[in-house]
Amino acid sequence: MTDFQILKRLYEDYTKKYVKKILISVIFTILLAGSTSSIAYLLDPAIKQLFIEQKRNLILVIPALIILAFAIKAASLYIAKVIMIGVSVDVTRDIQRDIFSSVLDADTKLIENKHSGKFISNISNDVGMITALVSTGILNLFKDTLTLTGLLCVMFYQNWILSLFAIVMIPVASIAAKSLGKRIGKVSTLQMKRAGILNSYLMEILKNHKLAKVFQNEKYELDRADKLLENVKEDSKKINIIYVRASPIMEVLTGIMIAVLIYLSAILISKNELEVSNFFSFLAAMMLAYQPVRSLATLNISFQQGIAGAKSVLPIIDYIPEVRDKKESKKLIVDKAQIDFEKVNFNYSSNDSTVLNSINLKIPGQKMTALVGHSGAGKSTILNLIPRFYDANSGDIKIDKQSIYNSSIYSLRQNISLVGQDTTLFDDTIHNNIAYANRNASISEIKEAAKYSFADEFIEKLPNKYDTIIGENGTRLSGGEKQRLSIARAILKKSPIILLDEATSSLDAETESKIQKAINFLTQGRTTIVIAHRLSTILNSDVIYVIDKGQVIDHGKHDDLVKNSATYKNFYEKQIKRS
Fold it and tell me: At 506, is the secondary structure helix, strand, or coil?
């Protein structure tokens, strides 16, 4: 998109709805411009009437008018800024909400391919640049343009010859500002990228701080941090230098202008073509015009930063997920929850090798099916295709003879619960973590789910019980406790299809027994597909599929496969029997 198209998009999507508030702010900026101009104008009668002609009847009137003008200026500026602050925070919320919405709807592929730290940088740093353009930029544009216009009127009223010379300096300042704006736009884009990298690195350190300690890599990580911080520092330094570079340019131009104007004014006064009172009023108007001219000259810098932020944020908001409902999608009606894979092929990208190759599976309803195979065989991919975290490249997946691709994603996922190998929990209460599966569940239902997952045993021992905050991803809980909470969440959902990726981590015998009992309760009478790592799970399965290099090699019961499948026997003896 061109810069104009980006500005138009920002106006239509985020600013247009607040036009009334902006117009009210503009009304106050008109008052601000009028009061500022009147201050300069009042110096003419003040000098002429009070100091030269010494009219006593105006000795209180003119000072009172000057005080009133300053009061109106101060109040108008304050109200205009407060209104635009409100617009600013509203626009910030709207843009950030659109980013959240897009991220929540985005394909798993997009989320996995972009570091979460960069998303955080987008939603904080980049959005801040956009709102500075939309709010502060708009306010300054109206405020300074109107103020400058009013002051120019005063200047022309006092002396048109001097005013023409003063106007010549405005385009010169604008040319300098335009050049600085282009430079700052390029630097801002680079700074945003490096800020995203720094955020990503910080998240990595917080997540893996134990690794850094145990492998004694604190100095190595600090050196990496130094390099990243140095890059961000240099970018920030460049931006600030470009910002302040506008000041000396404007100071020099103003100095030249004042010097020449004083010279011309002296000539005009000597010829009686200009009165001293007119000159001081003109000079005051010109000095007051310095701030709006300087602000308008640097407005292009804020403009370029806002455009750079929008170029980073808008592609995220505009992202159209590949995994989405068809126009004619129907609600999935689940009865037995039988799942069929029909010649399913899949790879994660066109550059990757095939992960699943013409997979055919018949997963019986209301029974347990185990997927076994070596790491990288494609088992997790099979699980991920069922709730449509990814879409198959070709082939079809059916539930009770209904293609999941012709069914609405909402109705599909409504019938699925997932218990992953890596337990995912929120930094929230135990109650809210379990209730995440059903936000309308009663406390008795939540406690019942905790009971059947054997989570209530450790929950009741906690000081705040179900109101206990468990920390980021459950850091205050043990591995076994986190697994039981994850199972409780799945139990609460009461969905007919269970996707289970067994944890490979070893647990003590008592915890292992409780988790196995919880899984047995969860999967009873439900269609369960489990990536099996435990012998007990395999023995309890009604059907076992052996997956190797993205293909189904064998299937059957455990005893038959041990006898007839060399691949399964090898897997069983190396990975299951010894565990």
Answer: coil
Give the pTM.
Answer: 0.77
Name the phi and psi angles at 284, rounded to 5. Answer: -65, -45
When divided into structural domains, the chain yields a total of 2
Which candidate, 330, 361, 368, places its Cα nearest to that of 343?
361
Nearest partner of 371 among 570, 544, 562, judged by Cα: 544
Q: How far is CA 228 from the centre of its chain?
A: 21
Give percent of the chain above pLDDT 70.
Answer: 90
Query: Do 312 and 433 share a structural domain?
Result: no
Which tens digits make up the pLDDT trace of 506-558?
567 777 788 888 888 888 889 999 987 777 778 778 899 988 888 898 898 88
> Residue 244 belongs to what domain range?
3-317
301 shares its domain with 160: yes
Contacts of 77 (CB under 8 A, 6+ apart): 28, 32, 143
d(CA 515, CA 507): 10
By mean pLDDT, which of 371-375, 387-391, 484-488 is the weakest?
A: 371-375
Q: Judge contact between 236 and 191, C-beta under 8 A.
A: yes
Mean pLDDT (whole number) for 89-103:
88
Q: Is residue 502 part of a domain?
A: no
Span 90-110, average pLDDT: 85
Beta bridge partners of 341: 361, 397
* Residue 357 placed within a domain: no
What pairs with residue 88 in β-bridges? none
